[in-house]
């Protein structure tokens, strides 16, 4: 069985830097903790099975 990937502070800071954020900002600690909470809440989606479902057609916004 595959091991679950970890999202540690080093990975977070790397992604933040790639996104153009100031990784030296004191707010990075708060943003990292928020990010961990969001990612943990998404883990429950792994329990849903989508076998047998076809994706909907692509969304096309209405034209004026």
Explain how this protein is built:
With 64 residues, the chain is mainly alpha-helical. It contains two helices and no strands. The chain has helices at 9-18, 28-42. The chain is flat.
List descriptors.
mainly alpha
Q: Globular, elongated, flat, extended or rod-shaped: what is the shape? A: flat
- In total, the number of strands is 0
Q: How would you characterize the largest beta sheet?
A: none
Number of helices: 2
What would you call the quaternary organization? single chain
Mean pLDDT: 86
Low-confidence stretches: none
The ordered string of helix (H) and strand (E) elements is HH
Nearest-angstrom radius of gyration?
18 Å
What percentage of residues falls in helices of 4 or more residues?
A: 25-40%
Distance from first to last alpha carbon = 51 Å
Given helix and strand content, the structural type is mainly alpha
Content of β-strand: under 5%
Q: What is the element layout, followed by pairings?
A:
Blueprint: H1 9-18, H2 28-42
Could you write a compact summary of the structure shown?
With 64 residues, this protein is mainly α. It contains 2 helices and no strands.
